Amino acid sequence: MTAVTSTQATGSGSGSDPGSPVARPARPLGPRLAGGAAQLFMVAMTLLWVTPIVFALYVALRPITETNKLGYVSLPHHLTLSNFVDAWTQSDMWKFFLNSVWVTVPAVLLTLFLASCVAYVVSRLNLAFNIPLLILFTAGNLLPQQVIITPLYRIYLAAHIYNTYAGLILINLSFQLGFCVFVLSNYMKTVPTEIDEAALLDGASLWTRYWRVILPLCRPALAALATLLTTWIYNDFFWAITLISTGDKRPVTSALANLQGQFVSNQNMIAAAALIAAIPTLVVYVLLQKQFIAGLSLGSSKG
């Protein structure tokens, strides 16, 4: 009895009761400092990224007379939307928006189609030149665009595609194709080969396996690339200002340069026009947001 009693007392004193709280070890100070520093860095980068946009919106909402009197860095007396109205009506921005549509939409669709075709060949077919072909397409992104201005200008003049939408679409297609081939080929490699083999046993042709089997499975990656391509091609300034000489044919981003020369004293209107020009890319991202995030997450977790 004495031994049992002492054993029970020892057991109760050792803290083995399931209901008693268990002391957890304190978290080391190093990881907590690292986590706090990471959060502080992200907050700082967010503020650094948002500040120019907020300032542009602030300038666009102020009347030009008030800005000329008080300066850009001053408290506003009243805000107005007249700069947005004037930027839309006086500069004919709707025409430049249409110019951007004629360039961006065909360039994005052609780039995704051709890149998916090459990526399917590189990733799903066992050919001897798969790796050299992938390297060739990827190496095109390493070439600085400024290097080929002079020969490209002469080629465009000889081919009679200078100052045309077709020429602008072609150059955007050429420089964006390599990146899309690289991304889509890596994504297609994550799709099980058994799917191709099953379709082949059912008598599916090469085109059928590409168009009806693999391409629908790559929808998240295609949506992510479509979002990126739309942003890059729509916001392109270098090629639009180089290969389009007529102001009426220029896309909306390069047309802002014309606005700068025409309304050089009204920076508030220019800020409003720049914000209007950014709306289509925001709309595209909102429409493809789920597919864009899914493409990024799936691509990083597979393989």
Structure overview:
It is built from 16 helices and no strands. The chain has one domain (82-301): Orthogonal Bundle (MetI-like fold), CATH 1.10.3720.10. Helix 5 (93-124) packs antiparallel against helix 6 (130-139), helix 5 packs across helix 11 (219-234) and helix 11 (219-234) packs across helix 16 (289-301). The protein has helices spanning 2-13, 29-60, 64-70, 82-90, 93-124, 130-139, 149-159, 165-188, 193-201, 206-217, 219-234, 238-243, 252-262, 267-277, 279-287, 289-301. It is 74% helix and 0% strand. The model is unreliable at 1-16 (pLDDT under 50). The N and C termini lie far apart (64 Å). It has 303 residues and is mainly alpha-helical. The protein is globular and about 75 Å long.
Identify the notable features of this structure and list them briefly:
mainly alpha; MetI-like fold; 303 residues; single chain; disordered N terminus
Q: How many individual helices?
A: 16
Supply the CATH superfamily name. MetI-like
What shape does the CA trace take? Answer: globular
Number of domains: 1
If you compute it from the alpha carbons, what radius of gyration comes out, rounded to the nearest whole angstrom? 29 Å
Largest sheet: none
Mind telling me which CATH architecture this is? Orthogonal Bundle
Give the N-terminus to C-terminus distance in angstroms: 64 Å
Helix content: over 70%
CATH topology: MetI-like fold
Runs in which pLDDT lies below 50 for 5 or more consecutive residues are: 1-16
Tell me, what is the CATH class? Mainly Alpha
Beta strand count: 0
H-E string? HHHHHHHHHHHHHHHH
In round numbers, the mean pLDDT is: 83
